[in-house]
Amino acid sequence: MNITQITQLAGKQKSRKRVGRGRGSGMGKTCGRGHKGQNSRPSAGGRMLNEGGQMPTFRRIPKRGFSNAKFRTRFSTVNVSKLEERFETGAHVTPQALLEVGLIRNLRFPIKILGDGELKKKLTVDAAKYTGTAKDKIEKAGGEARIA
């Protein structure tokens, strides 16, 4: 054992600040909060985003338009190159089969097949949506792209 090992252990755990334990501690009486004022009070600091009478930022900025983000359909996406890697020729690719081979995490979202990569195997694919290139590649390889 040498000195560096001892000092590493000694400074590893910093002890918590014990406030209000007398003058000798350096954190007695006002406990590091100073005298009077908003931040000396028990519920110090006020509300988050409180601007003290000034018109709040979120009320100053004009609100316009509509966002469809709440209502969008989310998809689990799979590329045709991954289908090429994980499935044998003539396989039936279903959402359950994709889950078993580890291409999707769960069956919560509908499946969308994307056209990135090459596909040479004849596959029957059941999915909710296909990109144009993905559908072409599946059919060109002699497979079938069915909407499930």
CATH architecture grouping of the domain at 72-147: Ribosomal Protein L15, Chain: K, domain 2
Order of H and E elements: HHEHEHEEEHE
Read across the widest sheet, the strand sequence of neighbours is: 1-3-5
The largest β sheet comes out as: 3 strands, parallel
User: What is the overall shape?
Assistant: elongated
If helices are DSSP runs of H or I spanning 4 or more residues, what is the number of helices? 5
Radius of gyration: 31 Å
Please state the structural category: alpha/beta
CATH topology tier name of the domain at 72-147: Ribosomal Protein L15, Chain: K, domain 2
Can you tell me the CATH class of the domain at 72-147? Alpha Beta
Mean pLDDT equals 91
As residue ranges, the low-confidence spans are: none
Number-wise, the strands total 6
Classify the helix fraction into a percent range. 10-25%
Strand proportion? 5-15%
Cα separation of the termini: 67 Å
